[in-house]
Amino acid sequence: IGNVLYRRGQYRELLPVTKRKLAIQRALGDRNRIGAEFNNLGQVWRHMGDHLLAIDYFSRAAQEFAAIGNDRSRGVVLNNIGLVYGELGDYEQALGFGRKGLDLSEAARDDEHVGTALNGLAVIETWRGNYSEALRLYQHALEAEQRAGDPWALAEATNNIGMVYQAQQNH
Asked: Residue 170: how many CB atoms within 10 A of its CB?
């Protein structure tokens, strides 16, 4: 039910569902799933526009994943924190978290999340108006996504390249 609510953008309805899932995972002691639910709550708050709560929940997720040595998932969460800082206009913080997330994904040899991290860094560079760097990062993201075989991520990166050209008014 959570995925349906998320995809429909029904974030207020999703909050109690995700909090219940978190309570169940805590009762079971599954730290990996606890971290995942903290990440999900961070995404919900991010989409609802509460950036501080989003960062708080993403940070909790990162702590859970670090405690159990799940660097792959921690890299994803650090990338999420970077995107929130980017949305707040704090691009240096955004790039710092994004690069840490990329480093962890590269160390895990996780092409899917390497692509996601590169895509996130490229989004931040686009927000900064650094279009040439954004295009370079998107190109690397495309390469990683091709290796991972993720058609949705390939489409997202390709779309984002188009958005950079649009921002440059280079149609």
From this structure: 8
What is the per-residue pLDDT across 82-105, written as a single tens digit (0 to 9) for each?
999 999 999 999 999 999 999 999
d(C-alpha 158, C-alpha 71), whole Å: 27
* Measured CA angle at 69 (ends 105, 52), to 5 deg: 70
pLDDT of residue 168: 86
Under the phi-then-psi rule, with left for phi > 0, alpha for psi from -120 to 50, and beta for the rest, what region is 30?
beta
**Closest to 66 (Cα-Cα) out of 44, 95, 98, 34:** 34
Question: In this structure, which long-range contacts are made by residues 135-138, counting pairs with CB atoms below 8 Å and at least 24 apart in sequence?
Answer: 135/161, 135/164, 138/164
What pLDDT band is residue 150 in, cutting at 50, 70 and 90? confident
Residue type, 124: I
The helix/strand/coil state of 91 is helix
Q: pLDDT at position 118, please? A: 96
Helix (H) or strand (E) holding 171: none
Q: What token pair was written down for 72?
A: 């792959």
Q: Are 86 and 119 in contact (CB under 8 A)?
A: no
Number of neighbouring beta carbons within 10 Å of residue 155: 11
